[in-house]
């Protein structure tokens, strides 16, 4: 039996699972580790393989929170560097594939069941052949586009949407934009829609209202806003939710994803109470003459820690079919 | 011999050409008419067919400056309304295909020779398999994405990029944004990057500088700016060119078009002297950490009145192969 090792290496945790030659995930093989528990991903892979009682793998697919087009991968939020060669040596595999984590989520979409998806707004029926976008808002911001080809395969491509220009629509937002742009000359989307963006926006609200900064991280700010225990935190979450809605709307006009918009990431989860408000959908559809068009796109929340692993499996399958010329 | 009638129906002119069953354009069949010379597109088609000595066509492909997903097409800038049925009756053809004019340009890209493309900036070599975007800036603003499939066919899709939020980076630009947003609550990309956008931006510069409005239309404004005969016109063209560069840059981050960016339309042509300045490319690549990435995309000007007709031909070919199940 051939064995595939699938891993999702995030900024904080690494998740593993094994799959057989039919690309069925092996029951009970799922394990998650803190990245800080190992000195390198190579050592973490060896540890996992030992625990699973395997010496080598036929295929390895790693979903990475990093650009994967360079020879050496430098993880975006953890001090790990590695190459296809070093992972190949650690896993005793000749077939190692790196994919971007948002691309993995994109591949995983087709296998998600109703319990892993939460309908947020727009039509409930998905145009299964229509293009989809998966948006990740967490440490950073990005989007991947998923197109279904005529042979049923999915073509998935991550963009650099987090680096697009941050938009503003009010004088207050423009002042926030200037604060976020300080020392850089510009503010990109992920300067606002990210964990760090929430923290900086909160600091900006505290500063202009001469209020002490009580909360230091995005998680505490979102909790204080939910509890209504800190007005500056509430203003922060409302402002970021509004910018998030507008930004998603702009990406919808760029990609026309009739197959749906799938929101993921820790910032998406922290913003859930705000995403459910009518004001969020109002800001999303506020595209002038395209107001009606904007109602045609289903918005979903992607609730699954293992979605990227499912995506690795599908990417591995497509990759190996392609290698075999099928 | 089977005959295809190809037409590009713009807001002002309609261009025709015939093609044979191999989709080769018939020499000498090209003709262009002012839309005002006929009461309806049906009558114009009949007139053209009569002049060419044909009674019926096997295929008809129309490239339209209008959304084509509705049953009835309403031309964006000319008072013509028509349907597949009415065009079918006029042309005596059972196979009528409507495509968006930017999609037609997208299909046409693959057939353009060096003389129809003018290199503007970025690498000169095109990644022929990479995705391309064609951007039209004229009466309105839009973009289409062109992806080459594994079978060599092109998949082309027009977006609604003109309705995305107009970005700003300075207090002056935000004040212009507010002027353009007046009565609407928001300003979209095409409120600035269009003929009307040039006119309104010029009026805004005149108003804030207490200078009389000398020029009424975009063409005159661009000529006065080129001549350096009107400082407000110069400021206008420089501002719009800067916004154009930034907007193209944002679309590049959304689509990563390694196959190239192709600029077309009357506003693109009017802005040529500004597009050639170093400040244009500087604004295009000013994407923070993505500065190096931004140098990897070739920028071209598309110089061909007949490019959309070439695109109709290719669309017709793909369409008929698909109908025949090939």
Automatic annotation (TrEMBL), chains A, B:
Q: Which domain of life is it from?
A: Bacteria
Q: Pfam families under this entry?
A: Glucokinase
Select a single GO molecular function from the record's annotations and give it.
ATP binding
Keyword set, alphabetical order: Kinase, Transferase
GO terms under biological process = glycolytic process
GO cellular component assignments: cytosol
Family listed: Belongs to the bacterial glucokinase family.
Recorded protein name is Glucokinase
Q: Which organism is it from?
A: Marinomonas ushuaiensis DSM 15871
């Amino acid at each position: 039996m051939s064995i595939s090792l699938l891993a999702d290496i995030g900024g904080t945790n690494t998740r593993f699972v094994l799959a057989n030659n039919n690309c069925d995930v092996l029951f009970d093989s799922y394990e998650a580790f803190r990245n800080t528990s190992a000195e390198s991903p190579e050592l973490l892979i060896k540890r996992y393989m030992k625990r699973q009682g395997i010496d080598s793998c036929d295929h390895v697919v790693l979903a990475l929170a990093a650009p994967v087009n360079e020879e050496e991968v430098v993880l975006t939020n953890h001090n790990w560097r590695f190459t296809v060669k070093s992972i190949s040596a650690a896993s005793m595999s000749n077939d190692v594939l790196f994919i971007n984590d948002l691309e993995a989520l994109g591949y995983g979409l087709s296998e998600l069941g109703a319990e892993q998806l939460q309908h947020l707004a727009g039509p409930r029926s998905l145009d299964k052949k229509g293009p989809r976008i998966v948006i990740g808002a967490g440490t950073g911001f990005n989007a991947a586009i998923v197109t279904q080809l005529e042979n049923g395969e999915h073509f998935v491509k991550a963009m650099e949407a987090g680096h697009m220009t941050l938009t503003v629509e009010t004088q207050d937002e423009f002042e926030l934009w200037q604060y976020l742009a300080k020392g850089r000359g510009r503010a990109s989307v992920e300067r606002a829609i990210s964990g760090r963006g929430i923290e900086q926006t909160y600091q900006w609200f505290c500063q202009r209202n001469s209020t002490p900064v009580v909360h230091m991280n995005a998680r505490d700010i979102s909790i204080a806003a939910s509890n209504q225990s800190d007005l500056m935190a509430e203003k922060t979450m409302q402002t970021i939710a509004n910018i998030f809605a507008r930004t998603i709307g702009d990406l919808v006009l760029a990609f026309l994803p009739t197959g749906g918009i799938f929101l993921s990431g820790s910032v998406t989860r922290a913003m859930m109470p705000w995403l459910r408000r009518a004001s969020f959908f109002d800001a999303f559809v506020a595209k002038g003459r395209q107001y009606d068009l904007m109602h045609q796109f289903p918005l979903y929340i992607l609730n699954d820690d293992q979605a990227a692993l499912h995506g690795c499996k599908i990417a591995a399958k497509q990759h190996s079919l392609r290698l075999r010329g099928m």
